[in-house]
Structure formats: C-alpha cells, structure tokens
Automatic annotation (TrEMBL):
<feature type="region of interest" description="Disordered">
    <location>
        <begin position="200"/>
        <end position="228"/>
    </location>
</feature>
<dbReference type="InterPro" id="IPR006665">
    <property type="entry name" value="OmpA-like"/>
</dbReference>
<dbReference type="InterPro" id="IPR050330">
    <property type="entry name" value="Bact_OuterMem_StrucFunc"/>
</dbReference>
<dbReference type="GO" id="GO:0016020">
    <property type="term" value="C:membrane"/>
</dbReference>
<dbReference type="InterPro" id="IPR036737">
    <property type="entry name" value="OmpA-like_sf"/>
</dbReference>
<dbReference type="Pfam" id="PF00691">
    <property type="entry name" value="OmpA"/>
</dbReference>
<feature type="compositionally biased region" description="Basic and acidic residues">
    <location>
        <begin position="215"/>
        <end position="228"/>
    </location>
</feature>
<protein>
    <submittedName>
        <fullName>Uncharacterized protein</fullName>
    </submittedName>
</protein>
Length: 228
C-alpha cells in the first residue's frame, strides 16, 4: 500500500462514525423531549384533579389512558394545553391537535408560564406562606421565564388557599395574600421591577380541584398583563 493512499481506508470509517454519532444525538434529544413533555403533562393532569391518568409520548404526540370515559375529553384537553405537545389521543375522546401557539407576546408568555406551572406548580406548606421544595423550584423556573420578558408587561401574582370546612373567609384571603407576597418578593429580588409586580389574595374562591381542599389548591398563579 503506497504512503500517499494508505489513509483512504479511514474515510468510510469516519463517515460511519459520524453517522452513528448523529443518530445517537437525535435519539437522545428525542428521548429528552419525551421525558420533559411527559413530566409536565403528568403535573398538569394531577393539578387538574386527574392524578390517576397515564400519559405516554411518541415524539410530541401524546396518548392518555387510565381515565374514566366521562373524563377522557377533559384529560385530552389538559394534555393538549401543555406547551410542546402536538397531538393527543385519549380513549373515548376524538384525537385532537394542540392549540396553535399565540402570536401576541403577552399571550405567548402567558402560555409558557402556564406550561411551566402546570408541570411544577408553586405550592405551599399547609396553613402557611412557606414554599414547599417543589414550590421553590417552580419560582426559580418562573424567574427564568420572566427574565427575558418584554419590559412593557406586568405580572399579577395571585395567591390561593385550600378550603377548610368552617374556615374564616377573611383568614383565607389573608393567607392567600401572604402567599402572593412571598412569590412577588422573590420576583422583585430576582430583578423584576417593583412596579411591574402586584400581589393579590383570592382566598379559597378559585379552587383548581373539585373539592378545593387538595394540595393543588395551595398555590400561586401568575397572570401577564399589559402589552396592548
């Protein structure tokens, strides 16, 4: 074998290795996407009062199972609202496509926030304004999203509490306001201007679950305003 051509056998080997690496990178990327979507979809289903539902992904296409026929459509709607999902199939409900992403910057940001908080709600210890570890992580995720938000947008931090039989509505509203204040202060400390953040306590008037007394109701939600 002449010295000038002795290296030519490496060319097909390099092509094979490059192709294998590209396939591996694509597979790993798809796996991460499916894992992320599945986690956020499961969180959204639990927050919607459907913790027994099972969701699997093939790419961005979801399949929901483990729900009663009368809940199939609702489960499909919940998963379809998770950002990044393309289609959803659920037994007893027609296959549906996820809604198109909004073009308005405010609505796009709201959809992104809703997707983040569906997968990881801002939750609190019972009867306190102390964030759970999961709530701490959710606030951090929200800060990451809001860090690049247009400066003409403002954020209402709405606090909520779980219902307590015979509870005092005034005490419920006060606790919900304290929860909103806790999160609002975190956002301001992270660099969001004070005049862009407001805190509101809704008490137990806006439950997320049918009974209103579950951990998903001890929460804070963020509403994007302005940008018109």
């Amino acid at each position: 074998m002449s010295g000038g051509r002795g290296w030519l056998w490496l060319v097909p080997l390099a092509l094979v290795v490059t192709g294998a690496l590209a396939v591996a990178a694509t597979w790993l990327g798809a796996d991460r996407i499916e894992s992320d979507l599945a986690g956020r979809a499961r969180g959204a289903l639990a927050s919607a009062g459907l913790p027994g539902a099972t969701v699997t992904f093939d790419g961005r296409d979801a399949a929901v199972s483990g729900v009663a026929p009368e809940q199939a459509r609702r489960a499909a709607d919940v998963v379809a609202a998770v950002e990044g999902v393309r289609t959803v199939e659920s037994p007893g409900a027609p296959a549906r496509e996820a809604p198109a992403q909004p073009r308005n910057p405010r609505d796009r940001l709201q959809a992104e926030l809703d997707g983040v908080l569906a997968g990881q709600p801002i939750t609190f210890q019972p009867d306190t304004a102390v964030l759970t570890p999961q709530g701490e992580q959710a606030v951090s995720d929200v800060v990451d999203v809001l860090g690049s938000a247009p400066t003409d947008l403002e954020f209402e931090v709405g606090g909520h509490v779980a219902r307590v039989p015979g509870g005092d509505p005034r005490a419920a509203r006060e606790l919900s306001r304290q929860r909103a204040d806790t999160v609002a202060r975190r956002l301001i400390a992270a660099g969001i201007a004070n005049d862009r953040v407001s805190a509101v306590g809704y008490g137990d008037t806006r439950p997320r679950t049918p009974t209103g007394d579950q951990s998903a109701d001890r929460r804070v939600e963020i509403t994007v305003r302005g940008g018109d």
